[in-house]
Amino acid sequence: MSLIQPKPKPKSQPVTQKKHIDALQVQSLSLSLGSGRHLKPILKNISFDLPRGQVLGVLGPNGAGKTSLLNSLTGECQTQHGQVCLDGQAISELSVQALASMRVVLPQQHAMSFNMHVSAIVAMGAYPFAQFSQITVDKWVIQALSEVELLPLQHRGYLDLSGGEQQRVQFARLLVQARAIIYITGHVYIFLDEPTASLDPKYQTLLMRTVKSLAEAKHATVFVVMHDLNLAARWCDRVLLLNQGQLVVCDEPRHALTSARLEAVYGLPMNVMQHPHHAEYIWVVGHV
């Protein structure tokens, strides 16, 4: 028998993992426009978090500050107070290039003076990413146009399309950019400003289903400004209700959208009931 005793194994130390914050964080955000006597508060002390993989619908009456909030979160508008962070990084400290590699934005208005082909506009989503081959970009363009059901119109002029068709083209362009970012980093922040405003019910559902599927796969975190309460209740994990620049509530639709709260914000009596076809969702009916 050996007299040499084996050395005792050292006790294993727990591996300390660095905590990574995969969320949009907004802290005490305030924004005013104008100057002097004409200084007007637009956003007042807004705070909320948006975890990875969720869809947040932003609701409120006209002039509530919804678009101003979106512009503040994307870095398009400089706020006076507070902080916005993406993945734990303050956007005020991120370069334009860094922001472009993390988030995509679909604004309300799209100024186009040249009658470019639909496919060329959709391909513009990949312009910031020169590392991808034309074959890859073409594949993403075809995929995006198929998703918005515009593939037969890929060679049409953009200015020859209806307003709803143009909006679907712009959404397809955003999908190409989002997929490029997802390919590189695995995740993208998607900011949409009233993306369903000019769409009929079929394509409203198609658009929301598409971003919801990206979020459910944890590839996207979505911030979407909306007016349709029922569309938000159906497709959003949470809703943020704004009124006169102030955050009224940020919660799951069934908890946030109460009859009393909606009447106070919109000035219109509303009934909130169980969805007639999907018991897990609510349905809002306004009374004129």
Name some characteristics of this structure.
32% helix; disordered N terminus; 26% strand; 9 helices; 288 residues; 4-stranded antiparallel beta sheet; Rossmann fold
Q: Would you mind describing this structure in some detail?
A:
- This protein is α/β, with parallel strands linked by helices and 288 residues long.
- The chain has a single domain (23-286), classed as Rossmann fold (3-Layer(aba) Sandwich).
- It has helices at 66-74, 96-100, 118-123, 134-147, 163-185, 201-216, 229-235, 253-256, 259-266; strands at residues 23-33, 40-51, 55-59, 81-86, 89-90, 103-106, 188-193, 220-225, 238-243, 246-251, 270-274, 282-286.
- It has a 6-stranded mixed beta sheet with strand order 6-7-8-3-9-10, with helices on both faces.
- A hairpin with a 7-residue loop joins β11 (270-274) and β12.
- It starts with 22 loop residues before the first strand and ends with a strand.
- The model is unreliable at 1-20 (pLDDT under 50).
Give the helices and strands, then pairings.
Elements: E1 23-33, E2 40-51, E3 55-59, H1 66-74, E4 81-86, E5 89-90, H2 96-100, E6 103-106, H3 118-123, H4 134-147, H5 163-185, E7 188-193, H6 201-216, E8 220-225, H7 229-235, E9 238-243, E10 246-251, H8 253-256, H9 259-266, E11 270-274, E12 282-286
Parallel strand pairs: 3-8, 3-9, 6-7, 7-8
Antiparallel strand pairs: 1-2, 1-4, 4-5, 9-10, 11-12
Helix pairs in contact: 4-5
